Write the structure tokens for this entry.
Amino acid sequence: MTGVQEAPAYALLADGTTVRLRQAGPADRQAVQRLYEGMSPQNLRLRFFSVNPASARQAAERVAGGERSGYRALAAEYDGRLVGLAEYEVLPGGSTADISLAVADDWHHRGVATLLLEHLADAARTAGITAFSADALAENHGVLKVFHDLGLRVTRHFDGPEVHCTVDLTEDETYLNAVESRGGLADIASLRPLLRPGTVAVIGAGRKPGSVGRAILRNIDDGSYTGRLFAVHPEAAAIAGVHACRSVADLPQVPDLTVIAVPAAAVAEVAEECGRAGIHALLVVSAGLGTHQSHALIDACRRHGMRLVGPNCLGLANTENDVHLDATFAARHPGPGTAGVAVQSGGLGIALLDGLARLGIGVSTFVSLGDKYDVSGNDMLQWWESDGHTDLALLHLESFGNPRAFSRTARRVARAIPVLTVDAGRSEAGRRAAASLTAAAATPTMTRQALFTQAGITATRTIGELLDTAALLHAQPLPHGTKVAVVSNAGGIGVLAADACVDAGLVVPRLAADLVDELLALLPGGATASNPVDVAAAVGEEQLEACIGLLARHGAVDSVLVSLVPTAVATATGEDLVRALTWASGSLARPVVAVLPAQAARVELLPTAGKGTVPAYSDAEDAARALAHAAARADWLARQPSAVPKLPDVETVRAKDLATAYLEAHPEGGWLDPQTTAVLLGYYGIRQIPWAWARDGNEAVAAAERIAGPDGRVVMKAYWPGLVHKSEQHALHLDLQNASQVRAAHRDLVTRFGDRMTGVVVQPLAERGTELFAGLVQDEVFGPLVVFGLGGTATELLADHAARLAPLTDLDVHDLLTSPRCAPLLYGYAGSPAVNLGALEQLLHRLSRMAADLPQLAEADLNPVLAGPHGVTTLDARVRLVPRRPHDPYLRRLR
């Protein structure tokens, strides 16, 4: 049980301080001894149960003993100093380890011990350890609180002045929530110098106008920044009226935030100078850093505990009253408001800021993430959740550093505020090198959409659509469903609006007769009210206002879309229908949107009679898509969060042993043979149709006689390592009815494939049922993805699949079953019997569990899966393993 040497990691403490975590060893003898010798007698007594001068030396010798079976030591260090130590040593039996903790006296109550324990527990799980045990003095309230607050199940046994603690290392939602909460608090603390700095210095603002650094300095100075501002220049005493110092070391006080706008070659050196000065945050707008320069920059930030935005970015802004910081080189200051914006592309950032400004939607915080070396969308979501100002989050992310952690954070934040994003990168071709159907189906688009859907993120296709939806969510309440009433003063535009709603997935229902009668009583002659509601060209303000109010209050629909064009009738009578629309929508519980084809802007927010606004679009398609996004968000919020179910009869340990044994024999990985595949699936209770293995014609005949169904018919499939698409290669024979046909089929396969074929699989001919497909693939970035849809030979042609990221909750499985176009087949289509949905749900949950248990599981294809009223049976299965070490996406560490 020798520990695996891990690369050092950086992580945040509760106060936002960055520490370095690494494996301790022989080189740490003196550092460990100094750690213990620096403790007070009281803390030494709590650690060793007595004050013995030899204890420090003995503890140092234990760590210096080096790597050995069943022992591991993790060190936490800051600026080269050892500030914390955590150790475990496996007890007899191999599944429990005794642990010890030590933290320097001046580093107590900052989360050092908790952080070390999280990382030590992760290493222990990888080594097969299931529990920690520790003895402590009952008066050692500090360490007992550390154990209690971990989020893991802890049992205590008191024995006089001592207490024995056992910590179950099983990860569950309680533990993940505790880790997430600690990580969020630490993250927010680390971002304060960046987003709420009391002092800012700009390095790289030249004396001549026109440079990026000069533009940022001017924007900060002109933007009513409430803190102190300095420039750093080796020669100038002042730049654009701002006091300048020759170097960072000469600044009269240490800035919270430093803006770096120097040439790429100088960035790392300047960052190192900032770190030595004690600066906590950097904004690097410089672009063009090479690989070595990039590594040097991030290394300086990590060693000195500086958070970093950029490089290659537009800058950042915070419009809060006590900050007023505009550290961007955008042409206009962002207006104050409640929309949080984070983008990777500076150009898109400018477009979003301009679009929001045109709508009158102000910004709380804007961050251009650029190349995203450090601060990410995940960081910003946590900031917006806690800042007390943001009620709308807009993201543009071209990449994900830790998508599973991002998804977990977004899922929580999206319940409090809408989170919108642009789904960029959809045009990338599928996995061209994919060896299996699952990998081929799991395109980047499908994977990203799975993440967004599960996390409750509203994903749009363009910046324009993002602004359309933001306008609606900012201005109007959410609809309770998808039913829309379309109102127009011209029949043609009403029809187009209704078509746009249906195309967007909304419903334009026929209105009930009593409601139609009420509407017609309000409207002028010539009006129709079946939906779309044509109020006629002669409609007046009061009539239109009453019509909209009746529809929005009645309950027959969930939202109202009003499409209006200017008419000579309204002009002649002085009626202002747009004014009537805004007055009508001022205090309604259901959303009202306008479509004004004569409007020049794509979308505007029109003031209502009260303090609100109503979104007005120039195109009905834009309005309908925005309404559809709002309805989808309302549906997601209405769902009760569900959990990953516990599964009986899963043999995780044996499955892991199988994967380990296979990869020891096949270090490069590969496709499991049919026998091993069947054993692995059996460990997860995944049922396969009976089958037999045959190496020659005689064995094939014997197998057919042994496993044939009541009608005596069988199927024969060729096998060799790497064979995936049997149908395409004509490597199977169906409906074999007697021994002679079995022999002939075997001869045919041998003739065509020769020595490549290592044997055949013989199965009884399956009964009729719905042919489905289920599979999973380990995405290098996103983790395991479960794919489900139509199976059989048409599955690739029709590409009718849905996907969700594992682990799957009950809601995820429900969505998988209902999302594909083939979903009606599962519920009894055209008189056919419904399939056993419970068995199908179990299959997907078990696939998800297998993926979660086995990081080595690269791909799995179950195709076809035969589903019927009595159950679900896998007819063909392929599984590929690759060497891959487990990685906990929720372990607290900086990228």
